[in-house]
Amino acid sequence: LFLQVFLASLFKDFNLVFSASVFIFGTIYTKRTKFVAQLSNFLLGQAKMAIFLSRKNKFEGRASDVLWLFYCQVKCRITVDFNYYTLMHNLEMFELLWCCNDVLCSVVECKLVFNV
User: Fold this and answer.
1) At 29, is the pLDDT very low, low, confident or very high (cuts 50, 70, 90)?
2) Is 51 within 8 Å of 66 (Cβ atoms)?
3) 42 backbone dihedrals φ, ψ, rounded to 5°
4) pLDDT digits 0-9 by tens, 74-88
C-alpha cells in the first residue's frame, strides 16, 4: 500500500496518472513523452522487483520493507548512471534521462542531489 501511494505521488509529479492498469502494462511511449515514459516504466519495473524481493525475503524468514528496497534500487541505479555520465563529461544527458521535472534527483554544481 505504501509503495502504491508513493508511486502515485511520483507519477503525479511527472504529470501522469497512476492506476492498476498502468502498473501492469506500463506507460505509453510517444516521441514527445519518450524520456518521462522510459523513466516511469523503469520505476514500475523496480517496484515490481522490490515486491518480488520483499516477498522472497519474507518467505525465507528475513524481514524487508518493500518501499526501502524500491528506494535503494532506484537510488543505486541513479548513482551509477551519474558516475558514468560524470566520467563521460556528459551530465546534460544524465539530466535529460533522470532529472525530469526534478522529481527523483537534480544536478547542482556538478553534484547529485536526491529529491525523494
Assistant:
1) confident
2) yes
3) -60, -45
4) 999 999 999 999 999
pTM for the predicted model, two decimal places: 0.91
Q: Cα separations (Å) of 68 from 15, 38, 54?
A: 24, 22, 10
The residues, ordered by sequence, that sit 6+ positions from 14 with a Cβ below 8 Å of its Cβ are 36, 39, 40, 100, 101, 103
- Mean confidence (pLDDT) of the chain: 94
Q: Which three cell numbers stand for residue 24?
A: 501492469
Q: Is 5 exposed, middle or buried (0-12, 13-18, 19+ CB in 10 A)?
A: exposed
* Residues contacting 13, CB < 8 A, separation 6+: 101, 103
